[in-house]
Design a protein that fits this description.
This protein has 226 residues and is an alpha/beta fold. The chain has one domain: Alpha/Beta hydrolase fold, catalytic domain (Rossmann fold). It contains 9 helices and 6 strands, in the order βαβαβαβαααβαβαα. Strands 2-1-3-4-5-6 form a 6-stranded parallel β-sheet, sandwiched between helices. α3 links the parallel β3 and β4. The chain is globular and about 45 Å long.
Length: 226
């Protein structure tokens, strides 16, 4: 039974992968950990501690895993895969970036906002536009807190994985919603630089589209794994 490890977005939690875990859990071992400073895992959040936690989880599995990351979770997934690429059977990266631009402005705006306002403003996107998931997304955002975003955006702005992408020899599926315009160019760059990667853009999908179109995300992942 193959293992799939899901890595959630900054400010989210492992339960954001519930639709995929439910659909794939009968045929695969599914792991969706809470990153440091998120959900039930103590913080603080940092890209390196998060990647280390995922790499440790992967190392404990008897066989290489299928590693899936969304948003900043995709960056964490790449860092974890680079720790030991032989432990990763495939990569799926959605809305991810190897070199983030414009995060300084985003961080400065967040610095001025109360944590409750950040959770309220972002919960719709983090629920994939589904009103029934908004309360869960808001709770996850509040648990992670403002500092997780401040730390994560600062580290993301300083990170440049582009020189290391050629070391990711595993088959990679790079996904991006057509409405996630900020991440379309980074997705194209990932697909062009990772040696065995292909790009698939999803019409009408936003940033956290595994919840917006859960069945389609699961189908794309299943096809890639197969």
């Amino acid at each position: 039974m193959a293992t799939i490890v899901f890595v959630h977005a900054l400010g989210s939690s492992g339960r954001a992968w519930q639709p995929q875990a439910a659909a794939l859990g009968e045929r695969h071992k599914v792991l969706a950990p809470d990153l440091p400073g998120h959900g039930e895992t103590p913080g603080p959040f940092g890209l390196e501690p998060a990647a280390f936690a995922v790499a440790e989880l992967i190392a404990a599995e008897p066989e290489p895993v299928h590693l899936v990351g969304i948003s900043v979770g995709g960056t964490v997934a790449m860092l974890a895969a680079l720790d030991d690429p032989s432990r990763v059977a495939s990569l799926t990266l959605s809305g991810a970036t190897a070199h983030a631009l414009g995060v300084a402005l985003q961080r400065n705006l967040m610095r001025l906002m109360p944590a409750g306002l950040i959770a309220a403003l972002m919960s719709g996107m983090y629920a994939g536009g589904r009103p029934e998931l908004k309360a869960q997304a808001k709770e996850d955002l509040r648990k992670a807190g403002k500092q997780a975003f401040m730390n994560g955006l600062a580290e993301l702005g300083a990170l440049d994985l582009r020189p290391r992408l050629a070391d990711l020899k595993t088959p990679a599926l790079v996904l991006c919603g057509t409405k996630d315009k900020e991440n379309l160019a980074p997705a194209e760059e990932l697909a062009a630089t990772i040696p065995d990667a292909r790009l698939d853009t999803i019409p009408d999908a936003g940033h956290i589209w595994n919840l917006q179109f859960p069945d389609l995300f699961t189908a794309k992942l299943q096809e890639h794994i197969a």
